[in-house]
Design brief:
The complex is a heterotetramer, with two copies of chain A (77 residues) and two copies of chain B (153 residues).
Chain A: E1 2-6, H1 8-14, E2 18-21, H2 28-38, H3 42-45, E3 48-51, E4 54-55, E5 67-71
Parallel strand pairs in A: 1-5
Antiparallel strand pairs in A: 1-2, 3-4, 3-5
Chain B: E1 6-9, H1 15-22, E2 29-36, E3 40-41, E4 44-53, H2 55-72, E5 77-83, E6 85-88, E7 92-100, H3 103-120, E8 123-129, E9 132-136
Parallel strand pairs in B: 1-5
Antiparallel strand pairs in B: 2-7, 3-4, 4-6, 4-8, 5-7, 8-9
Chain lengths: 77, 153, 153, 77
C-alpha cells in the first residue's frame, strides 16, 4: 500500500490531505494519470511529486510502502 | 529553544536568537534575511497569510540548502527557520542567518538561501484579502513540475 | 533605547532591537548585516579590538548614507549603529538593518551601507595581538586622502 | 581661533587629541603644511581633512571658528 499526500490548493481541490492507494510498480508519470482519474484537478498536472520526501522524476518507480506527495508550485519564504 | 540548524514551526521566530546561533569566533560577518508579511501586494490589501508546509520534507530541503551553502562557501554557518500557520501583517515568515569569515560570502550565501527556499522547499502561502483568498504558487516563475537545479531521482 | 535612525555608542548592540525598528507594514524584506570581531585575521590571533570614532561626524556620515540609500532605493528604511571602545572576540561592532518592499533592494541597500561605512565614516579600529597593537586603516584600499565618491566642499 | 582634532594613529603620533591654532584664511593644503611643521607625522599626509564635520578639499578655505579634523584612513564596520 502507498500513502498519497496532497498539499495547499491541491489538498482543497482533492478534498482530502491523504489517501491510500496501491501503486507499487508504477512510474511517477503513471501514478499522476491514475490519481488524476480519481481527483481530476488541473493542479495535479503542474505539481511536482516527492517520493519519501525527495523530489522524483517522471520515470521514478514506486515501491511498496513509498509515501507519494503531490506538491503544487511552492511559495514559501 | 532547540539546537537545530533548520526548522519549521508554528511559533513566532526570533531573529536575535537565530543570529546568536551563527555567531562564532572565526566569523567576522553575519548576514540575515528576514521575510515579513507585507500589507500591500500589487495594490491589493492583504489581511493575513496562512503558510502550510510538508514539514518533514521542508526541513530536509532546508538542511540540503544549508549543506549546499557550506559546500559552496566553506567556513559558513547557516541557520534557517520558517514559520507556518496564520501570520499577520509584519509577522516574520522566514529567518536566514549566515556567518562567514568575510562579508562577501555572507551576502552571497544569504541570497542563495532565500532563492533556493523559494525554489525547492515545500511550503505554500495563502493570501487572505477582504474579498477572497488564494494559494500563491510559482513565485520564481519556474516551469511548473520541473524542480529547477534539483536532481530528479 | 532611543528613536534614532543612526548612532554610535559604547554600549553593546542588539540586532533584534535594531531589526524591530525597521519592521513596517509596507516592507516584505529585511536584510541585516552584522560585523563581529573575528579571532584570526591572516593567521594572526586578535585578542581584542578598540574602536575610536569622531562621534558627531560619524553620526552625520551614517545619516548621509541612510539618506543616500532612501534616495537610491525608494521605500527603504535604514537603521545603523556602530559600537566603539573595547570589543572582544564575537562582539558586534556594527549593525545595519534595511527593510524594503521586495528582497532585491534589501540586499543591495545593505551591501551599499557597509561599503560606504568603510569608506566615509570616521571610525578607526585598533587590533590588539599578543605581541603588539596597530591602528588599521584603508581597508577599502582607496587612495589615501581622497574621499571616494564623496563631494569635497 | 581654530580647533584642530587628531584621531586614531594620528592622535598617538601627535601626542594630543586637540590643539588650538589660528588658521583662518588658509586653505586646507596650507593648513596641512603648517600643522606638519609642528607635528611632523607621515600619517598627516595620508589623512583626510574635515572642516566642521564635513570632508574638505585641498582648496577649501578655513574660516574663523572652524573646527579642523585630521582623519587617518577609516577602518570602521
Amino acid at each position: 500500500m502507498n500513502q498519497l499526500l496532497f498539499f495547499a490548493g491541491l489538498k482543497e481541490a482533492a478534498g482530502t490531505e491523504n489517501v491510500n492507494m496501491d501503486l507499487a510498480g508504477l512510474t511517477v508519470e503513471e501514478v499522476k494519470k491514475k490519481v488524476f482519474e480519481v481527483y481530476p484537478s488541473e493542479q495535479l498536472q503542474t505539481s511536482m511529486v516527492a517520493v519519501n520526501e525527495e523530489f522524483a522524476g517522471q520515470e521514478h518507480k514506486i515501491e511498496e510502502g513509498d509515501t507519494i506527495a503531490f506538491l503544487p508550485p511552492v511559495s514559501g519564504g | 529553544m532547540n539546537g537545530k540548524q533548520v526548522w519549521v514551526t508554528e511559533e513566532p521566530l526570533s531573529p536575535g536568537e537565530i543570529i546568536s546561533r551563527v555567531t562564532r569566533r572565526d566569523a567576522g560577518a553575519i548576514n540575515t534575511f528576514i521575510g515579513t508579511v507585507r500589507e500591500f501586494t500589487k495594490g491589493k490589501k492583504t489581511l493575513y497569510l496562512h503558510y502550510e508546509a510538508y514539514p518533514a520534507m521542508a526541513e530536509k530541503k532546508l538542511q540540503q540548502i544549508a549543506d549546499e551553502i557550506e559546500k559552496q562557501w566553506p567556513g559558513t554557518t547557516t541557520v534557517m527557520a520558517h514559520r507556518t500557520g496564520r501570520l499577520d501583517i509584519t509577522d516574520i515568515a522566514v529567518v536566514i542567518a549566515v556567518s562567514t569569515p568575510h562579508r562577501d560570502a555572507s551576502y552571497a550565501a544569504s541570497r542563495y538561501a532565500i532563492e533556493r527556499i523559494k525554489e525547492i522547499v515545500p511550503i505554500w502561502k495563502k493570501e487572505h484579502w477582504e474579498d477572497g483568498e488564494e494559494w500563491i504558487g510559482n513565485q520564481k516563475e519556474t516551469k511548473p513540475g520541473v524542480p529547477t537545479k534539483e536532481e530528479s531521482r
